[in-house]
Amino acid sequence: MRRELTRILVKQRGIKMNQIQDRRIETKEVKTRIKNVELIDRRRRQIIDAAIELFAAKGFHNATVREIAEKAGLTMGSLYNYVESKEDIVYMVYDYITKILRQEVKNAIAPITDPKERLKIALLQNLHSIYQYQDIVMFIYKASTFLDRERLHEVLARETEYIELFEDLIRGYFEDERVNEVRVRLTADLLTYIPVIVTFRRWSLRRRFDSIETVMKEIINFILYALEFIPEELPFTTA
């Protein structure tokens, strides 16, 4: 199993943000004066890459639109052809990275048919992706405060899609058993959040463990052991 995990993940771990060329920027909520779809996509990718670097280094408030434009190789006037505000840029970054995390899990499990292996691969890929994009992930968890109500609703809807992906994987994992649906839904929520520990607690993990690979392996073991509370036959009590 470990060899298969490595084979699938090795392609993913070398990806850098500015090397991801096959994902279209679908941000219909962000207005633009430009009609050329390909040009919009290319310029917004430049803006996103620049914003990611600056937001990660300086934070939202300290990174200026002028700096983002310069880093993207655009003038201020040109940048405003593709976005209307700094908040638009935050939304595009949020939208972009959440799609990447979801798609990388889907790509990793695509060649796997065994339901149990699919969930294991998905868990490990999720950990690797979050660790790879840790600075951006850290930022987007704070960035929700910069989104208006409508856009926050949009990104939460995408997050729900991600959680539902894990719900389906959990049901497949227990395909021959009767499961408690409340536990399935709760567990899916937990599985999409637990991996964030490699970002939020990275300072501690680096100090206390020999390698991030060891941390990820034990997180997976912990999760797989905890999954056994999902079947209906196992009672749960707080007493």
What radius of gyration results from the CA coordinates?
20 Å
User: What is the succession of H and E elements?
Assistant: HHHHHHHHHHHH
Mean pLDDT: 81
The biggest beta sheet reads:
none
CATH architecture verdict: Orthogonal Bundle
Low-confidence stretches: 1-28
Could you give me the name of the CATH homologous superfamily?
Tetracycline Repressor, domain 2
Count of DSSP strands: 0
First-residue to last-residue Cα separation: 38 Å
* SS-derived structural category: mainly alpha
Domains (count)? 1
Instruction: Output the number of helix runs.
Output: 12
CATH class: Mainly Alpha
Helix fraction by DSSP (H/I, runs of at least 4): 55-70%
Approximate strand percentage? under 5%
The dominant shape is elongated
What is the CATH topology assignment? Tetracycline Repressor, domain 2
How do you describe this structure in short?
The chain has 239 residues and is an all-alpha fold.
List the helices and strands and how they pair.
Layout: H1 2-13, H2 37-58, H3 65-72, H4 76-79, H5 86-109, H6 115-132, H7 134-143, H8 149-173, H9 181-193, H10 197-200, H11 202-208, H12 212-226
Helix pairs in contact: 1-6, 2-3, 2-5, 2-7, 5-6, 5-7, 5-8, 6-8, 6-12, 8-9
Please provide a written account of the structure.
The protein has 239 residues and is mainly α. It has a single domain (2-229), classed as Tetracycline Repressor, domain 2. It contains twelve helices and no strands. α5 (86-109) runs antiparallel to α6 and α8 (149-173) crosses α9 (181-193). The longest helix has 25 residues, at 149-173. The radius of gyration is 20 Å and the shape is elongated. It starts with a helix and ends in a 13-residue tail after the last helix.
